[in-house]
Amino acid sequence: MKRWQVIGCAVLICTIVWLQIRLWGGEGSLAHVDSLSQRVALKIETNESRRQRNRVLVAEIQDLKNGLDAVEELARSEFGLIRDGETFFLIVDE
């Protein structure tokens, strides 16, 4: 083999080794891309649950703005309020 062929083979082998290192480790590697994909999936799931929570809150705000029935229901459920003339019964299980 001639000297330039040996140098060419060495450069080729070094290039292949370098590409393998880049493929399997470090930024942009398969493992890095997989971890980023998992993080993106988690963020999408979190965002969707927050969107659903926001929809519920917007609906509750609209109910509170539009009528006293929602305010009364909220006062009864959250604060245990009763109207004048109503009788409150508390049933306790033993």
Written account of the structure:
This protein has 94 residues and is mostly helical. 76% of the residues lie in helices and 0% in strands. The protein has one domain (3-79). It has helices at 3-24, 30-66, 68-79. Helix 2 crosses helix 3. The model has no long low-confidence stretch (mean pLDDT 86).
Report a brief summary of the structure.
Helices cover 76% and strands 0% of the residues. With 94 residues, the protein is mainly α.
Question: What characteristics describe this protein?
Answer:
94 residues, mainly alpha, 0% strand
Task: Write the SSE topology.
Elements: H1 3-24, H2 30-66, H3 68-79
By DSSP (H or I, 4+ residues per run), the number of helices equals: 3
Shape category: rod-shaped
Quaternary structure type: single chain
Note the gap between the termini. 96 Å
**Strand residue percentage:** under 5%
Helix content: over 70%
Overall pLDDT confidence: 86
Sheet with the most strands, sense and barrel status: none
Let me know the number of strands. Answer: 0
Low-pLDDT residue spans: none
Helix and strand sequence = HHH
Number of domains: 1
